[in-house]
Amino acid sequence: MKKKRVIVGMSGGVDSSVAAYLLKQQGHDVVGLFMKNWEEDDTDEYCSSRQDFLDAVSVADILDIPIEAVNFSTEYKDRVFSHFLAEYQAGRTPNPDILCNAEIKFKAFLDHANQLGADKIATGHYAQVHEIDNLFQLSKGEDGTKDQSYFLYRLNQEQLASTLFPIGHLYKREVRQIAKDLKLPNSLKKDSTGICFIGERPFREFLNRYLPHKPGEIQTPDGKVIGEHIGLMYYTIGQRQGLGIGGKRDGSDEPWFVSAKDMAQNVLIAVQGHQHPSLLKPTLTANDLTWISGKQPHCNWVYAAKTRYRQDDAPCMIAELTQSQCQVDFAQDQWAVTPGQSVVIYESKVCLGGGIIVK
Fold first, then answer.
1. I need a labelling partner for 253 at 20 to 30 A (CA). Which of 6, 108, 122, 215 fits?
2. What span, in angstroms and rounded, lies between the C-alpha atoms of 238 and 130?
3. How far apart are the two ends of the chain, measured CA to CA in Å?
């Protein structure tokens, strides 16, 4: 690849730092860009953005590349956070990281990078892009335990054509070793987890600042009252902790799990046992579809899918498909399929796209 001007999204973490290093080693004109996406309650107690910026600046200094900071908090609040709240209020469980990638990291960031004269943008995601027959494919990262293609399924051809994933062919241990050899200050920095604007604080505490409690009954599927919930938005399908249901019931001491929400009656449905039939589904329906190539996949074609990030690929087929909706049938029942989450479809290691789970 001939020398290009590449703007690298540097988060202060080890992955984006090594991505910047590899690009410079390849001879590119590399510029770091630190994105600040959240301002409310941005304190050191829960949010690490100040330290992350200092880490990014320290790495840029060692690599001898320029770095600037840009504030996308307004765009984030309008395009990601407002959707996050609306989905929770409707009783669904959204994945803001997916929307953040599509709307901020590969849209607002890409637009800003273009204004800086970028030929390409780059991030530290564990994923790969390949150009085949004038189409750009999104493929899984080589390290299957760190692959992040699930979070990138909403990207389009234009975004993929402009993007480099310099560490997509590496394993995490290799990335950390490179950082260690370079004596980068963040070589051992812990990976960030959870939703960026919540940080390490209790989830319910954060959500209660925006969505008030609305208590109601917890019932079994046959209508027996077994407890009280504090608001349906605070629970997700498959949740076990925090239900406040203890002791034996009906002769069983198996744990309780959320299996459904009745929004109309403000009732949370819970069942006993991890393998309760109510928690297992052979099929799902998804809408708000995004296909990376711009073309729909085949119906009745055997693919694989994930209905959540930390999940093995599940063999499936697309049984019904329209422009706006699809039905996915699985070879084996899937556990705790959750409305609001994404189903992402794969053909071998190639990510085809996906949609938002409706039911």
1. 215
2. 36
3. 45
51 and 59 Cβ atoms separated by less than 8 Å: no
Measured at the alpha carbon of residue 127, what is the angle toward residues 176 and 161, in degrees to the nearest 5? Answer: 130
> Is 331's pLDDT higher than 70?
yes
CATH topology of domain 212-274: SH3 type barrels. (2.30.30)
pLDDT tens for each residue of 195-235: 666 666 677 778 888 888 899 999 999 999 999 999 999 99
Active site residue ranges: 100, 196
Domain ranges of the chain: 5-181, 212-274, 279-357
Q: Which two tokens stand for residue 157?
A: 């051809």
Q: Per-residue DSSP letters for 58-114?
A: HHHHHHT--EEEEE-HHHHIIIIIHHHHHHHHTT----HHHHHIIIIIIIIHHHHHH
Tell the CATH topology of 279-357.
Elongation Factor Tu (Ef-tu); domain 3 (2.40.30)
- Classify strands 5-9 and 120-122 as parallel, antiparallel or unpaired: parallel
CATH number of 5-181: 3.40.50.620
Q: What pTM was computed for the model?
A: 0.91
What count of Cα atoms within 13 Å lies in the side-chain half-sphere of residue 259? 20
